[in-house]
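Sequence only, no structure available. Ideas?
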Amino acid sequence: MLSPKTGIVFPERHKNTQKTRYHQVEMLIAKKLDRKIHRLEKKLARQQKDSKRRNASHLQIAKLHNEIADIRTDFLHKLSTKIVNENQVIVLEDFNVSGMVNNRKLARAINQLAMV
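Reply:
I predicted one. Tokens follow.
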């Protein structure tokens, strides 16, 4: 399958493969945690500054961010290992990901693309 915008070729995914199921589970977990972070950040914005409860909420949000980061890195490590073991030749393209993530309208989508 060819991506129309970037021209990157992605392998075809079959619905009944283990890889697709694992990928869907990881995406659902990350999406669920994203929603939870959004809710907690709204709650944090309403709390009084420098209160104990606000500090606790801030710590809770930080832990969720770390959990999402761990899920993404785990998925990328497993995927890269699988790609290396299955293929003889690997071609890499250099993207300015840190520059693309600075665009606040695209940052979440780009971070989630790491799991596609």
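The longest helix spans residues 52-86.
Hope that gets you unstuck.
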